Task: structure prediction
Amino acid sequence: MEPPPSHPPPKPPDEVRSQLVGPLLAYLRATGRDPTPLVERFGLPQDAGTLPEVSLPLTTLHAFLDAAEEFSQDLFLGLHVAQRVPRGNYGLVEYIARASPTVRDTFRSLARYLALLEPAWLASFTDDADGGGTFAYGIAGAPLAYGRHASEYGLALFIHVGRQLTERPWKPRAVAFAHPAPPEVAPLVEHFGVTPTFGGARNALTLDAATLDLRVVGADPALLSVLERAASGVSAPTPVSPPDAPGFVQAVRDTIRASLRDGAPQVSDVAKGLHVSPRTFQRRLTELGTSFQDEVDAVRRELAFRYLRDANLGVSQVAFLLGYSELSTFDRAFKRWTGMTPRVWRESAERT
Result:
């Protein structure tokens, strides 16, 4: 039997769009340091400090952030910039997050629309069995993404803005960074309220159910509807390699979700819905470190938790909504995900 064909690892993008460069330069200037030498050294636009985003090679961004740390002598530069970023810096994506009803909805929106900021971003939000959830993001082929300071900036910003939105001093259950631990972590612990882990495969925030269910102060459902329609009409630029990577996984999940009403999703049907051949479809998923079955399971698992919390839906109805032709098949799948049957999980959830 011939071994399955091997696929080369995904290649990171050559050039990226960064929304950190401008705020970082503005922070340096506000703290009494003229960033002109950095701007000139890395060939940035003269007005980079006022631009919403700057495009530059990924390797240059890494070098720029390292040089900015040395220039400022600020070992937690990304964290400190995150604590001072002005409202509106992230445009449409930020306003969608701010208009969402709950923290959970905010992170789901971020997972869906983060690629509008940079097509290379691959983001996800996964519901846990206990009602909590994990938001994670990264770049295919670039385990450290934009580098240490950008990663600390990103997760710190999500927490900072999330506390503003809820007007509550909540803290995440866990914080994980892809980069190695810095020599000192006390400023990060103070900001997050927990001790982060380092050297993992991704940057991620895990929040408990109570935090995710916090209401966003000033949420606006009508505005959210308008903003999401606008976002749906925005085409994210296509990255060089792998093509359409971040948006592709989300599109796969959206297509799977829509097809569940017709039964178990099929590779050929989902590929057709995305206007690609089944072979190209499966190759792209492999390049992104996932598979069709993994994505079907992810969608079904997320929806199962949501449907089972609805007391108006029987377990058999939930199985039907998830595309299972037999309740026993749903029982086996759910037990594989959680170690218990749907009925036992629902009873446990009702007691908590």
Q: What stands out?
A: Residues 15-78 form one domain.
